[in-house]
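Q: A reviewer asked whether we had any structural model of the full assembly, not just the individual parts. We don't, so I'm hoping you can provide one. Inputs are below.
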Amino acid sequence: MDLILEGIKKAFSLIFTLDAEVLGITLLSLKVSGLATLISLFIGISVGTAVALTRFPGRQFVVSLINTGMGLPPVVVGLFVTIFLWRNGPLGFLEILYTPTAIILAQAVIATPIVTGITLAAIQHLPANLRLQILALGATRFQMVWILVKEAHLPLLAAVMAGFGGVISEVGASIMVGGNIKGYSRVLTTATVMETSRGNFDVAIALGIILMLLSFLVNALLTQIQQRERPR
Amino acid sequence: MGLSVMRCMAVMAALVFIIGMTLTGTAAVPVQKNLILATTTSTQDSGLLDVLIPVFEKKTGYFVKTISVGSGQAMAMGQKGEADVLLVHSPDAEKKFIADGFGVYRLLVMHNDFIVLGSPADPAAIKSAKTTPEAFKRIAAAGGLFLSRGDNSGTHSKEKGIWKAAGVNPVGQKWYQETGLGMGQTLNVANEKNGYTFADRGTYMALKKNLSLNILKEGDPILLNIYHVIGVNPVKWPKVNKLGAKTFSDFMVSAEVQGIIKTFGVEKYGGALFFPDAGKREEDLGK
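A: Here is a predicted structure for the entire assembly that you could use as a starting point for your response.
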């Protein structure tokens, strides 16, 4: 119990004294996971909408793949991304292994199926007639898709939260492809693992609290946007 | 409603942009400036590298990417040319690594020793054992819970060697559990489960404040823990940073670093964690 109190005290002292290293780690986490989520939104919303609105042979199989991908284990992603990015590997010429860029890449791979899956479900859940109605009113195909996406914005914001939540809390891939390098590719989760194995439990707890605070702040912001609904 | 989606996107984009501006961590560094050091968890968990790496970087301008894994994995990375220089402590595997042509040189850096830890109650009564293999035999005979790293690290290799010397094959036994974790975490597990474990003294001293484990066996010559720095063969893997590896290796055996190693941890833990050995012969250690 003392340890937890000590951790909480440590967390506040680290936050309020603006400890340079912790601040750097926190900002890097936010930056890396934020960018990864953005990338996943771009791909996930496009692919999810496309799959939701089209019928093609093997579609069922593709949807199953996407849904399975929503539970993609981060360590497995980390392992494959590492092997691809090895300097003697297929993507070695990029020279991004053990950089924050590699973490962004791995996290985008993790978040994309989550966003795709939720988008797919959200768009498909819209009334089928809505599509016909919009087209009947003379909208172009692009306008129709845009209206559908806007109509589904509540679940899509949930997709953003799920995607971001999935990657900011992920440690397996980050430690493998980022290497947990001090002052460079160390993020909140990998730092927590390291401090735990160093026996600095108070610092580990403090980092954990900062991670949860960060996650809460981002989600509170998104929730505020999501719930700001005009009365109908 | 449409507005809120747009606004949300705009907020997200702005957020990421602002954060992006404040950090320049992803900037590309010249290839030859990057140096990948694959090392054991003990050098990182004890905090030694946090002291040495900044000195090296400041002095030479290299950017060191320290990848802290077990010695086994570190050498596997070297074998694949995915690391430039290794700092490891698994002498038998290292000799094979050099003999197989994966490494071009191997320099003695420092040593400390391994210790056998257990709960103060010592249910297998190993404290009175004459030698470490004898102590391991007693653990096996009594079926005392033993926590092994189980990760092919230098510490794990050493532990396996001692089981061999004791004539016991512990793998698969009910009392023998493999954590598959680093030294620090394995110590914590052993502490929680009141089990026996095998550790390097450096990590133990760094974590001592949280542990209720006692040192039950130490000082036996078989328990010597020797660290070498190895340069990965650039002929096998042309992308290896040969010059960087050599610069780092020379740095590790320099008088300055050997001095830092000598005093590292004295103030914080009340005793040195590592003993500098540059220029000595491996065979002469522990005599």
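A: Points you may want to mention in the reply: Confidence is low (pLDDT under 50) at residues 20-30 of chain B. Residues 31-112+226-282 of chain B form a domain with the D-Maltodextrin-Binding Protein; domain 2 fold (CATH 3.40.190.10).
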